[in-house]
Design goal:
Layout: E1 4-7, E2 10-13, E3 18-24, E4 33-39, E5 46-52, E6 58-60, E7 68-73, E8 78-83, E9 92-99, E10 113-114, E11 118-123
Parallel strand pairs: 2-11
Antiparallel strand pairs: 1-3, 3-8, 4-5, 4-9, 5-6, 7-8, 9-10, 9-11
Length: about 120
C-alpha cells in the first residue's frame, strides 16, 4: 500500500488557478502510474489526468485538456496538477491515486491506492 496525501485545494474564482500536490510515502511509485480523479456532488468519480511514473507520459480528460497539466517530481515522490482557467464545472473533491502498472487508465477500479481528497471550489 502507498499512503497518498493531497494538498493545495481551495476556493477560487472562475478563470483562476490552483496547484494540487500528491505526496506518496512508504515506497516509491517507480514502475507504476498515478492519476487525478474528481467527484462533484451527486456525480460519479471521473478521471482528470494521469502520468506514467517511468517515462513521464501523460493522459488527460477532454474536459481539462489545455487547461490542466499533470507532472511529477520523482525525487520527491510527488505528483502535481496545475489547474488554469478554472471553471465552476471543475468544482469537486480531487483525489490522487496510484497503481502498480505503468499504464495510465481512466477507470478508478484500475488504481490500488487512494488519497483522502482535497476540495476545489470554483465560483462564477
Amino acid at each position: 500500500q502507498v499512503p497518498l496525501v493531497e494538498s493545495g485545494g481551495g476556493s477560487v474564482q472562475a478563470g483562476g488557478s490552483l496547484r494540487l500536490s500528491c505526496a506518496a510515502s512508504g515506497r516509491t511509485v517507480s514502475n507504476g502510474a498515478m492519476g487525478w480523479f474528481r467527484q462533484a456532488p451527486g456525480k460519479e468519480r471521473e478521471f482528470v489526468a494521469g502520468i506514467n511514473w517511468n517515462n513521464g507520459s501523460t493522459r488527460s480528460a477532454d474536459s481539462v485538456r489545455g487547461r490542466f497539466t499533470v507532472s511529477r517530481d520523482s525525487a520527491k515522490n510527488t505528483m502535481y496538477l496545475q489547474m488554469n482557467s478554472l471553471k465552476p464545472d471543475d468544482t469537486g473533491v480531487y483525489y490522487c491515486a496510484a497503481r502498480r502498472g505503468a499504464i495510465v487508465y481512466s477507470t478508478s477500479g484500475a488504481y490500488d491506492d487512494w488519497g483522502q481528497g482535497t476540495q476545489v471550489t470554483v465560483s462564477s
